[in-house]
Amino acid sequence: MRPEALNSLFVEVEALEGVGPKLRRPLEKLGLARIKDVAYHLPDRFVERRAVIDLDDAGVGENIVVSLTVREHRSPSGRGPFRVLAEDAVGNVCTLTYFGRASYTAKKQLPVGETRWVAGRLDQYGQMLQIVHPEHVSESASAPLGQLREAVYPLSEGLTQGRVAGLVAQALKGLPELPEWIEPGLLAKTDWPAWHTAMRVAHKEPDAAARDRVAYDELLANALALMLVRQSNRSQRGTPMAGDGSLRSKLRLPFALTGAQKRSIAEIEGDMAQSAPMLRLLQGDVGAGKTVVALSAMLIAVEAGAQAAMLAPTEILARQHFETLRKMLEGTGVEIALLTGRDKGKAREAILMGLVGGSIQIVVGTHAIFQDTVEYRNLALAVIDEQHRFGVGQRLMLARKGRRTPHTLAMTATPIPRTLTLAQYGEMDVSKLDELPPGRQAIDTRVVSVERMGDVVGALTRHFETGQQAYWVCPMVRESENDDLAAAEARYAALKERFGEDVVLVHGQLRPEAKDAAMERFAAGEAKLLVATTVIEVGVDVPNATLMVIEQAERFGLAQLHQLRGRVGRGSEKSTCLLLRGQSLSETAKQRLALMRETQDGFRLAEEDLELRGGGELLGTRQSGDTPFRIASLEQIQKLLPLAHDDARLLIERDGGLSGSRGEAARLLLYLFERDWGVQLLRGG
Ligand code: ADP
Ligand code: MG
């Protein structure tokens, strides 16, 4: 049960004044569902304005507040903007420029002959000074002059700065006082304000201490929750399992295991022989050979007379894993089944029976495998592929399926830097496949300006003539989902016009059946070109696809580009990756793409990407989806996460966990950041 002190923070945003049905979607887009989300919706940056009397005293590009008298309205001739000519106190003329519908409000706000306080960015347009879309226009001086510094919030379509600021102000008004959960020593050393103050200050000024404190809270909540998982896991009884090797010796692999694979398998074997359940992450680049490591782990369980389950994030992947594993298992006599949400009726019944009766020893599937209706006779190992797609909460669901807590092997191909590994998987031990199987060819990676689209299509034509296939990837970002989808569809249409029926399209909004059908055509070689948004990111394996084109490559994270690129270079033919870039790129963007050309080492890419972005970042902005955090920036994660982990460990191991007064406060913190599965574990265990 959530502590009462937090109740007011968890009230729905609808309770705020002025939030009706119209704002629901825009707020939802920003993830603002409850008052606390609004309170934690921190500014991206602040504008600092200067009050001037004489426009000549202001510089072009400066944010100013000035009193202007309106002289004339100039309605557009044709498609031009609406302009208001106005004069400052000493007679300098300035144009206030409005595009589109904003002109209606402007007409009302700025009647000819009246004087108004105007806030905005002073620009020059030809010989003329101008302010495009002033941020504030008001009759009284107090509002603009009283707020020379103003927060700039992340927005979504349908929201304005003023609106968001108003909602934040309301949310902050009702902010409760909460007890301190940060270690007193750390608080003294850092000079961070208390929570309540920090929240207010973070919205008011670019104050590093306040901002850090708030980010630290988020990091600490995460670290604490992971620590609790780890601790509870240690106290569980699992089933110690020593496989006798009888099945593994029957595997006839067409290759020798790499050193890294052998080492990882040995680490897993060691864990599984213990009575505390294994909690291990297998980290390895795309193509590093995680599947065979997972298979070995599953066979240890089967050799010991138990069952193993492998969870994949998508249907396609589950199916592919199933096929691969089934082939590898030929001749071992091991019974393997596939279970996904699409299995219905008799087929499904048969699998469920096999699992509860124990005749099925290994099951591969989507989240369907841990639904309530699925029971196992003796589940002893859960393998979770592409771990980053699942939250810790889901992981725990699967862990509850065994009579005893099963051993867990999580796998990820997402190369993330060390600090983020700690953030995401801090509760796990890590095995790393840092060595690719021999004989992999380097992928020829090139950065090409989008202006050379004609050449790219030409290259594609020649590529198809050799009988090989290709991928074409378009970006898909949540914030601009609709535009991105439209762009992908337009690209598909254009390529289809050029290459005919041999082109298929896959994106996240397609029905799963349609998606699978397209993928299957491509995998079977019937389609030559797969146009896709990032759904192909994980797992897909088509060795004959040897060319990858990635559009607007600068919009992707390097880890993501790296994973996409990993789809090619899987066969014996030489592979190419073309990174199409926009016309104007920032220096950082250029460096990042150059790095892609330079290395194929996912771990190195991850570390350097963090460096590159960390430095050049605006306050608080970052690629969404990269980290499990909403508030902490990459820089803050690097700086503060190790502290948070130490703090969390001390609290759990030395300071009595969640009992005691700081423990009580820490419990609040876990609820505040919705890491309360940590608390629940503690109660259950
Ligand atoms: P991952 O899941 O880590 O991306 P996979 O397990 O799918 O990688 O392996 C990629 C490819 O490499 C597969 O075709 C697999 O059979 C092959 N492979 C795995 N281990 C080795 C090895 N030691 N030597 C040669 N090929 C290997
Ligand atoms: Mg894999």
From TrEMBL:
Domain Helicase ATP-binding: 271-433
Keyword Transport: no
GO terms assigned for molecular function: DNA helicase activity; hydrolase activity
Keywords, ordered alphabetically: ATP-binding, DNA damage, DNA repair, DNA-binding, Helicase, Hydrolase, Nucleotide-binding
Pfam hit, one: RecG_dom3_C
Entry-linked PROSITE patterns: HELICASE_ATP_BIND_1 (PS51192), HELICASE_CTER (PS51194)
Family annotation (NCBIfam families): PRK10917.1-2, PRK10917.2-2
Name of protein: Probable DNA 3'-5' helicase RecG
